[in-house]
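Researcher: Checking consistency across runs. Here is Ferredoxin again:
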Amino acid sequence: MHIKCDFDLCESNAVCVGMAPDVFELDDNDYLVILQDDVAEERREEMRQVVASCPRSALSIVDD
Protein backbone atom coordinates (compact mmCIF):
# COMPACT_ATOMS: atom_id res chain seq x y z
CA MET A 1 0.00 0.00 0.00
CA HIS A 2 1.35 3.42 -0.97
CA ILE A 3 0.39 6.88 0.16
CA LYS A 4 0.13 9.46 -2.59
CA CYS A 5 -0.22 13.23 -2.35
CA ASP A 6 -1.57 15.61 -4.97
CA PHE A 7 0.76 18.50 -4.22
CA ASP A 8 -1.37 20.84 -6.34
CA LEU A 9 -4.14 20.42 -3.75
CA CYS A 10 -2.00 20.16 -0.60
CA GLU A 11 -1.93 23.31 1.56
CA SER A 12 0.42 21.81 4.17
CA ASN A 13 -2.21 22.01 6.90
CA ALA A 14 -0.24 19.28 8.72
CA VAL A 15 -3.28 17.31 9.86
CA CYS A 16 -1.58 14.19 8.50
CA VAL A 17 1.65 15.10 10.32
CA GLY A 18 -0.22 15.23 13.61
CA MET A 19 -1.90 11.89 12.95
CA ALA A 20 1.10 9.95 11.57
CA PRO A 21 4.38 11.82 12.23
CA ASP A 22 6.42 8.78 11.22
CA VAL A 23 4.89 8.93 7.72
CA PHE A 24 4.53 12.67 7.10
CA GLU A 25 6.42 15.84 8.02
CA LEU A 26 6.70 19.43 6.89
CA ASP A 27 10.06 20.59 5.60
CA ASP A 28 11.74 23.90 6.48
CA ASN A 29 9.60 25.65 3.87
CA ASP A 30 6.37 24.13 5.23
CA TYR A 31 5.93 21.74 2.31
CA LEU A 32 4.64 18.26 2.97
CA VAL A 33 7.17 15.44 2.78
CA ILE A 34 6.06 11.81 2.70
CA LEU A 35 8.70 10.00 4.73
CA GLN A 36 7.52 6.51 3.82
CA ASP A 37 5.18 6.20 0.90
CA ASP A 38 5.18 2.40 1.22
CA VAL A 39 3.19 1.72 4.40
CA ALA A 40 2.59 -1.67 6.00
CA GLU A 41 -0.77 -3.24 5.25
CA GLU A 42 -1.46 -3.50 9.00
CA ARG A 43 -1.77 0.29 9.08
CA ARG A 44 -4.44 0.51 6.37
CA GLU A 45 -7.23 1.62 8.71
CA GLU A 46 -4.98 4.24 10.31
CA MET A 47 -3.94 5.56 6.88
CA ARG A 48 -7.56 5.52 5.71
CA GLN A 49 -8.41 7.82 8.62
CA VAL A 50 -5.46 10.09 7.82
CA VAL A 51 -6.51 10.31 4.17
CA ALA A 52 -10.13 11.02 5.15
CA SER A 53 -8.97 13.79 7.52
CA CYS A 54 -7.06 15.75 4.89
CA PRO A 55 -8.92 19.07 4.58
CA ARG A 56 -8.05 19.42 0.88
CA SER A 57 -8.47 15.72 -0.05
CA ALA A 58 -4.90 15.75 -1.30
CA LEU A 59 -3.97 12.32 0.05
CA SER A 60 -4.91 8.92 -1.29
CA ILE A 61 -4.07 5.26 -0.81
CA VAL A 62 -2.80 3.35 -3.81
CA ASP A 63 -2.73 -0.44 -3.65
CA ASP A 64 0.35 -2.22 -4.94
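Researcher: Does this match what you'd expect to see?
Model: One thing to look at in this run: The longest helix spans residues 44-53.
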